[in-house]
Amino acid sequence: MTLLELVVVLAALGSLAAAVYPSYRSQMQRARIGEGMNALADSRARMEQYFLNNRSYASGPCGTSETVGAFTVVCSTAPTATAYTITATGSALANGFVFTIDEKGTQRTTGVPSGWGTVPTGGYPCWIRRQGDSC
To answer: What pTM was estimated for this model as a whole?
Structure first.
């Protein structure tokens, strides 16, 4: 191979990589979002089990922070006897995503990274899974 052929091949590979990388990054973000949603569902199940055993959410298991994948999951305020809200805050590839769930099962997206849109006051009344989605 000549030097010119090598340069052409490298240029073609660079163009291909530049075209594929945004799609790859988007898929990786969506995978991380799923981790956060699963972590919230698991935390909610633990809180409901705690309530069944104790007839109160106060001092429930979501009071301690846990890291699941790219998300930190914790109660955003101390649980009361009848209410709680669990928040999952993203980092790394999930940076900017913030999802919540409460004792009623109400799912909200309260934060998305730039380029994903603007979150209305109080959040979206669902979990945003894809760029451009709305509730």
So the answer is: 0.82
Residue type, 93: L
Residues 25 and 102: their CA atoms lie apart, in Å, by 30
Q: What angle do CA 65, 89, 134 make, to 5 degrees?
A: 145
Q: Look at strands 71-75 and 98-102 and give their pairing.
A: unpaired
Neighbours of 124 (CB within 10 A): 18
Whether pLDDT at 1 is above 80: no
On average, the pLDDT of the chain sits at: 89
* Coil, helix or strand at residue 91: coil
Query: In the chain, what are the domains?
Result: 3-111 (3.30.700.10)
Confidence (pLDDT) at 70 = 93
Rounded CA Rg of the chain: 20
> Which tokens is 53 given?
């055993």
Output the pLDDT for position 15.
Answer: 83
| CA dihedral (123, 125, 128, 134) positive or negative | negative
Instruction: DSSP letter for 64, please.
Output: S
Match 């000549």 to its residue by tokens: 2
